[in-house]
Amino acid sequence: MLRTLTTPWIQGNNRRVRESAARGNSMRYVSVRQVHRLIGLNYPGGAPELAAALENFLCHAEAQGEKFPDLLLAHNLSGRRDREACELASVDADIVLERDIASGRVETVLKDYRVHTEFAREGEERRVVVHIELKYQDRTRWAIHVPLQALMKGFGDPEDGHQCYAHTIARLDADGKPETEYIYCGITSRNWLQRMAEHFRAARSGSNIRFHRAWREYQGRSDVLLGSELIVLNQTRARALSWEEWIVDRYRDENRSLNMIAGGEKGRRELQRLGYLARTDGSLEEWDAAVMNYARDHGRAGVPNLLIAGLWEDDAYYARVIEARSDTLGREQVRQIRYLASLNWPPEKICDEVGALNVDQVRRVLQGKTYLRMQ
User: Are 114 and 92 in contact (CB under 8 A)?
Assistant: First the structure.
């Protein structure tokens, strides 16, 4: 079991919450302005209520002996964040805030991965993430995920540079826990809320992009959890493109990607080769338009069927589907990669020997990030 710290927040307290939030300067940790800029109108109670709920939780955590609220605040105020490196403090924990729209009840829980290391994130992925889980009356469940540090005082301008985000569609098991998840990843030079609104408008209008079609198809189902996550902020264009290429490759390797084209520079070269993009160094808006045109011409590309997701629990079925794709590794290739690595072969030599797409594909196998079920 995870060590958790829980504080309930009830609708009856809303007036006190808003009054507290209105006195934003009296808050020690949370910035109402930052909450508004990164959550916007997506929280039903509004930014002041959400900011005050988080402030209440962090103050309670600090009173219980937790050090991370002050550590994150100090990191923000230190000015040590660097666009070319991880810009968030290396504290690994999640804060889950659940709000039931009908009752107005809010409950906040800390899940501490610094103690329970089996759930820990790796390297630059370490951060404290706020998971805002909203349960709507039409059965839709939507979770918004944002780095806590970006909602706190002293973070700076969250819209400076590029933002990296993901949208997810997850099938839930009988206990309501995510079982199979599909992911769309992207970057934007604007506020991720603007890009999110554009995605959702396109989904409603009948866009053929695989992510838009999947979101449209599965919205409103009680056995599906929709998710939207702001992952990193204040990135240079080059670093954001590198992140997008890496993350889309990762999920394509796992057959869980909703992206129709590779990410980053690789995707731009692919669209240019296919005649949808005039140049690879154009704006992100040009890239988005090219992807839309590609989707228009390739609208038959499949939307994941979450109803058969249970089949993926069968390792043999998983291997057959993966091997049927031209851009993924087969079982024998995966076994050979692991065997040659045990003989101290470098990834570059292994890549040539087994016929992998690239060295990064080999490294992800050796790092245990992909093909874990292929033995």
Answer: yes
pTM of the predicted model over 0.85: no
Strand order of the β-sheet with 162-172 is: 4-9, 106-112, 93-100, 128-135, 141-147, 224-235, 162-172, 178-188
- Specify the 3-state DSSP secondary structure of 357: coil
Please provide residue 362's backbone torsions phi and psi, each rounded to the nearest 5 degrees: -70, -45
**Degrees (nearest 5) of the Cα angle 352, 356, 357?**
110
Domain boundaries in the chain? Answer: 1-157, 159-311, 314-366
CA distance 66 to 21: 23
- Single-letter amino acid code for the residue at 80: R
Looking at 40-124, list the stretches that DSSP marks H as alpha helix, in order from N- to C-terminal side: 47-63, 68-78
Question: Phi and psi of 132, rounded to 5°?
Answer: -100, 105
Tokens 């610094």 found at: 114
Give me the amino acid identity at 216.
R
Which pairing describes strands 93-100 and 178-188: parallel, antiparallel, or unpaired? unpaired
Residues in a beta bridge with 4: 111
The larger pLDDT score, comparing residue 334 to residue 70, is at 70
Please, what's the b/e burial string for 108-123 (b: 16 or more CB within 10 A of its CB; e: otherwise)? bbbbbbeeeeeeeeee
pLDDT band of 24, cuts 50, 70, 90: very low
